[in-house]
Design goal:
heterodimer; A: alpha/beta; 9-stranded mixed β-sheet; 4-stranded antiparallel β-sheet; B: alpha/beta; 8-stranded mixed β-sheet; 12 strands; 22% strand; globular
Chain lengths: 341, 321
């Protein structure tokens, strides 16, 4: 099947008083129909910026594209004019924002906020729009839709607001939904409900979802494929099983070891990743993770690592996979060597 | 780590209630008849969803709130009945680490002033304060170059370290950690948890750990207290609670954790928990969890279950057990 979305060598930066921040550096990936793609990384790794680039939601200026292409069904998003972008947002790609408390308009009724997606659609009557809004409210598990339709955001709880956010993202029946940390501000029991809802909606509607999160538990539960980002770059990609069981990058491994699991023994020490993420004003010359990596070699500091293909889906950017690299527990069989990224 | 030799617990919370009067007719019962104790050198965790009263309980225990009813006995004395001098002494022995390292540090004070503020209150000279602050920063993994900087120059993890240094400055024996890691990045969380554990070992600290992340709670604590809507639903030693879970709410909470293991996550059959946490304003006098409980019977809607011992040291409040 053809890819819905292709991002090629995307580089996005921001002008600030302190200089240029290189938030996303040379990122390429694709989204296939009907899959859930996870993007995982710490704050400041560029995962949110990457996803907002797809819908051109970053303010430009101060942000600007230094290069790359974003092809949605073959059309370059970067070359679209305002009108084309407006047609795309909401109806082709939907967006679920991180914080439902602040991303809903407090002065508008729920119903109007959902219908806002259809503003300017002359082929739909007001009654049709309302019908559609009520349908979608029912679909995201909000009972008593007629009443909720007339309520304001402050009358709803956090979980309800997040359901409304999902409703807004889905009402235009988009082919891709971008969910930016959809459960971070919710309680565990509500989080579980929302994750189940997303999964079910994805199954019934066949929408592709790009799920951005820092929680490996959420990734494990929902995703088909995963991108691991660090310092504005993708350091590892693969299917969810490959990422968790055949980890090919020291950063991914570090992330897994640093979280407390239910089966972590009591006396066992957690193994944190020492240090802090790199400063993107002057990103490191070599591998972005080199300064915190336990396997760091001289070459890592000086030259950006090549991409190594470990299986059909699994790729890692790490010098440890090089044929001359010392034997470590990270070493895997390399199928193919990619170009220098 | 529990010190079993001393019979007297360090802190005893007895029938603690904290109500907020919203209007003439409405009372928000944030904490309703909560009792538990903490032994010296132990880590006790308070867990629950937001709005269950865990932070209010913590804040009552350090006198940030005045309880409506009940008493908090610290080392044999009721903390609400202390004399002025005793109060000052109490502040020295009990400290708190706050949830959000971005809002809990004064942006107009340097690190030295933030960490040294308490020391000065307790009558140390400037020179002594400087020396002590330097040592404290070293303990939490910062260095003396950081002393004259302002909070905005630090990352979240470093700020939380400053907050910890501030709490440690007066050599306390009991620290209340109110969600100390929930605002931090995954890779930084482990650094802070390890540091808290090391400090406990070297300084013999007692912790009350308030959290909603059960995997961290399991890792760090000796005993766990599970709260729901202002009441305790279950309490037990950590191992016992996780291996022999009794209360339906705790079971649901455990099964809701997204596990970082795709095979387990997909195999794990979730115990569904309906709806959302109800409002704590004028709660009904019955089991607070009844509305969301899949096993609820008529009795659950008419009578408040009492906290009963179901196994040695394991208490649960449910009619069905």
């Amino acid at each position: 099947m053809e890819n819905l979305l292709e991002v090629k060598n995307l580089t996005f930066s921001f002008h600030t008083y302190g200089g240029v921040v290189k938030a996303v550096r040379d990122v390429s990936f694709e989204v296939r129909p009907g899959e859930i793609l996870g993007i995982v990384g710490e704050s400041g790794c560029g995962k949110s910026v990457t996803s907002s680039c797809i819908m051109r939601l970053n303010p430009e200026p101060p942000g600007f594209f230094e290069g790359g292409q974003i092809l949605y069904k073959g059309d370059d998003v970067l070359k679209m004019d305002k009108k084309a972008l407006r047609n795309m947002r909401g109806t082709e790609i939907g967006f679920i924002f991180q914080d439902p408390m602040t991303s809903l308009n407090p002065t508008m009724r729920i119903g109007r906020q959902i219908e806002e997606v259809f503003v300017g659609r002359k082929d739909m009557s007001a009654a049709e729009k309302k019908q559609k809004a009520l349908e979608i409210l029912k679909m995201v598990g909000i009972s008593d839709g007629e009443r909720r339709y007339k309520q304001y955001p402050h009358e709803l709880s956090g979980g309800m607001k997040q359901r409304v956010m999902i409703a807004i993202a889905l009402v235009g029946s988009p082919s891709i939904v971008i969910a930016d940390e959809p459960t971070t501000s919710l309680d565990v029991t509500i989080e579980a409900q929302i994750l189940d809802l997303l999964k079910n909606l994805q199954k019934t509607l066949g929408t592709s979802i790009i799920l951005i999160t820092h929680d490996l538990g959420v990734i494990a539960k929902l995703c088909d494929r995963v991108l691991v980002m660090y310092g504005g770059k993708i350091v590892e990609r693969g299917t969810v099983d490959e990422i968790f069981y055949e980890t090919g990058h020291p950063y991914t491994k570090g992330l897994m070891q640093s979280i407390a699991r239910l089966d972590t023994a009591k006396g066992e020490k957690l193994k944190p990743i020492e240090g802090t993420p790199p400063d993107l004003f002057s990103p490191p010359v070599g591998c972005p993770f080199a300064a915190r990596c336990e396997y760091c070699m001289d070459v890592c500091m000086e030259t950006p690592p090549e991409t190594y293909r470990l299986s059909d889906e699994h790729e890692t950017c790490c010098w440890l996979q090089h044929e001359f690299a010392p034997d470590t527990d990270m070493k895997k069989t390399v199928i193919e060597k990619g170009e220098v990224k | 780590m529990a010190n079993n030799e001393s019979n007297q617990p360090l802190v005893q919370v007895k029938n603690l209630c904290k109500y907020f009067h919203i209007s003439r007719k409405e009372t928000l019962k944030a904490v309703d008849d909560v009792s538990f104790h903490i032994n010296k050198g132990e880590t006790v965790s308070l867990v629950g969803e937001s709005g269950c009263g865990k932070s209010t309980t913590g804040r009552c225990m350090i006198r940030l709130y005045e309880p409506t009813k009940g008493e908090i006995i610290y080392d044999g004395k009721d903390i609400m009945k202390l004399s002025r001098a005793e109060q000052k002494e109490f502040c020295k022995r009990v400290q708190m680490i706050f949830q959000n390292p971005y809002s809990s540090l004064n942006p107009r004070m340097t690190v030295k002033e933030i960490v040294g503020e308490g020391l000065k209150q307790h009558g140390m000279s400037q020179k002594e304060v400087d020396e002590k602050v330097e040592k404290l920063l070293e303990t939490v993994g910062l260095n003396k170059d950081h002393m004259s900087r302002f909070p905005h120059e630090f990352s979240g993890g470093q700020r939380q370290r400053i907050g910890i240094a501030r709490a440690l400055s007066v050599d306390p024996e009991f620290i209340i950690c109110d969600e100390p890691i929930s605002a931090l990045d995954v890779s930084i969380q482990a650094q802070v948890i390890n540091m808290l554990k090391n400090l406990q070992e070297t300084m013999g600290l007692t912790y009350l750990f308030i959290a909603h992340d059960l995997s961290v709670v399991k890792y760090i604590s000796d005993r766990v207290v599970v709260m729901y809507l202002g009441t305790i639903v279950e309490t037990a030693e950590t191992e016992e609670l996780f291996s022999n879970t009794q209360h339906p709410y705790t079971k649901a909470l455990l099964s809701a954790i997204p596990e970082a293991d795709p095979k387990k996550a997909k195999a794990n059959e979730r115990i569904p928990i309906k709806g959302e946490i109800p409002s704590p304003i004028n709660p009904k006098n019955c089991c607070r969890f009844a509305e969301r409980c899949q096993f609820a019977t008529d009795r659950c809607f008419s009578e408040m279950p009492e906290l009963r011992e179901v196994a040695p040291g394991h208490m649960a409040a449910c009619h069905l057990i």
